[in-house]
Amino acid sequence: MSAEIALARALAELLAAAPAVSAIVGTRVHASPPRMLTYPSVSVGRIESRPVGENDLLEHVVTITCASRFGGPEEARAMVAAARLALHDAAPAVEGRALASLKVRFSDVFAAADDELTLGVLRVRAVSEPA
Question: Which neighbouring-strand residues pair with 19?
Answer without folding.
Answer: none
